[in-house]
Amino acid sequence: MTSLRLTSLSAALALTALTGTAAAHAAAPTAAPAVTVSTPSASAVVPAFNDGYGLSLVPEDTQVNSPTDFTITVTTPQLSGKHKIRILLPTTYDTDPGRRWPVTYFLHGGAGNVNDVAAAPALHSDSMITVVPDGGLKGWYADWLMQNTVEGKANWETFHLTQVVPFIDANLRTRADRAHRAVVGLSMGGYGSLHYAQARPDLFGHTAALSGGIDFGMWEVRGAVLATELNLAGAWCAASASSGSGSGDCAGHGPYVDSDAIFGSPYPVFNADRVWKAVDPAAPVNLAKLSRTGITLYTGNNDLIDVNTAAASHTVKARLDQLGIPSRLVDYGDGTSLAPSCNGGHNYGCWAPAFADYVPRLEAAFAAAG
Q1: Tens-digit pLDDT profile for residues 105-116
Q2: Which of 132, 154, 169, 310 could be stapled to 301 by a disulfide with Cβ–Cβ 3.0 to 4.6 Å?
Q3: How far is Cα 157 from Cα 21, in angstroms, rounded to an integer?
Q4: Whole-prediction pTM value?
């Protein structure tokens, strides 16, 4: 891992206006009725969901856009408060009851939420289920080192990997094997997707990171994490959280927490940064865990954020090549090669067409797995 200078890390914080396993609770699901919610046009009925795996439903908070696009709310001992899970089903899910479906988990970016998926229409596919779990404004898809901050209990990785995944498999007609399960994400979620694929290669056979903070050896990436802890909102925040239109508007990354709250000290002094190194997606020892995983990376390089995600993505690609692990890197530069909406920056104008390019390839991989 590249050594970090203390002065460099301070500089990274100055740049933050631009950047950005515990045991499962395997309780048996308990019976619950299907949820019916009135919409302006009609009554929409979504599949029945049952409590289980440490998750308790909050039925009165269910939100239904349509029978194939709805959001459930759960509580869990692993996290403080209520948390949403948005679910997108294929249009024929209800009319083809004998069919089971692949599942893709989409991890949103920092200062984002489950509704960010609306800005990437390709993720609502007729060939797979898409699940969008809450990742917090600054959860970083991690079990936090500090559990006594203003955020309270913060075991995001445990919530996602040991609760949400089996909960979805128990409640929906999924293809519950790694060949038919993917984890994808952007920005903070790009880190999460690569890290989760490395942490649980038994769960995920496919992963994609878009403009991801995927090299913790870069002081710019560590600085971005610290910025979210300190709630230093800036362009990274505004660009990566989507409103309904995907325009991106947010107030910040939530309340201030200690700069060591998530991964501990970032300083490479007397191995104080050991947690950062242990979970670094770019570390060869972690990349080696992806030897049987389909890996795709997307990035632009045309703003002060994605010039750093491009550097991180190229480092990861080079190390995968050295390990002999196949992967695909799409560096669309200033965006002209990707789509008219893309300026090569850290925004949904690029991420939406990147997903439009990726999803058909993922669908083909799912189909090839049988």
Answers
A1: 999 999 899 999
A2: 310
A3: 7
A4: 0.90
